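Quick note —
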Amino acid sequence: MKREAVSTSWPEGEGLLGEGLTTLQKAEHLRGLELFSYLTVEELFRLAEIAGMFKRAAGEVILRENDIANAFFLVLQGKVTLTSRNEGFREVIGPQQPFGLHSVLTQEPLAFTAEAVQDTYALSIGAEDFYNLLSNQTETVVSIFKYFVKKSGLSPRM
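Predicted structure written out below.
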């Protein structure tokens, strides 16, 4: 399985609307993701601490179909097109929408190519950093499991 290096760093001297985001601001954005809805404030802060800032200009490819994502992203500003040649779909996503998360969680190839439609700013969490955080923070793993258990409809009597 092919892994293409993806820069998850914020270009020198650039920030969201000219400023970087604080850990608190990153945590507030991450709290909006359904997957992280059961995380405590402390867990959100730990996650925010490993989140990098990411910018891509219109027309730049962020992730490629059939690669395994080495990071997932949460769009803060701008738009990204998710296109699949294999599955024949095209979707445009914008602020507060994630992409690459499925591939990071499952370590399966991406089902789409992600390309910035306009200048796009996003939070980026590297797969290795995410798994390191999970391996050291069992409370965060339990919080994420809670989300999946509730989503699955698993009965409390099981």
